[in-house]
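#lab-general

N.A. 3:47 PM
ok so I finally got the sequence cleaned up, no stray characters, all 177 residues accounted for. can someone with queue access submit it? mine expired

B.Y. 3:52 PM
send it over

N.A. 3:53 PM
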Amino acid sequence: MARQTLTQRILQTVSESTLPKPLSRLFFRLPQLPPSMVLATLLNIALGESGLAAIPPTLAGRQLRLVVLDVGLELCLVLTLRGFIPPNLPAAIPDVIIKATKGDFLAMATRTMDSDTLFFKRRLLMEGDTELGLLVRNLLDAVDFSALAATQFSPLRVTAAARHILAQRRGGRLVLW
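B.Y. 4:20 PM
back already:
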């Protein structure tokens, strides 16, 4: 049996642990911008230039929402030609909503379970524009998260990517809602 890396062990531990209900309710009440900003930054770094170049111009400006059911976390992102950014104001009804548990999202990210399998087992729910949902799914499937090195997420690179995202948002201002 192959030995697990530290990253794989951490992801497995996180996906198997449960979040206490009071903490889940707290996450649900917190502003969406900070976790959405973190996700957008990490996705843009992970996708790289080649992944971002695969975004069709017709889907630019479309909004998606990822809902982590067992955590009570909703992450809103807008797809642009330069990557993902958190929206200035999330839409009441985004173009696509993708729902799953944290374990299922992590299983997709680590490729331990296929998104099609999760979808047909009704553990991955998609509402709205399926073309956008499939594009996002294919973009994420193209990233081999296990091959990413820690140096790609150095504080300097993450800060630069976050600044780039903020510059795309309404004159670079940080708007909390």
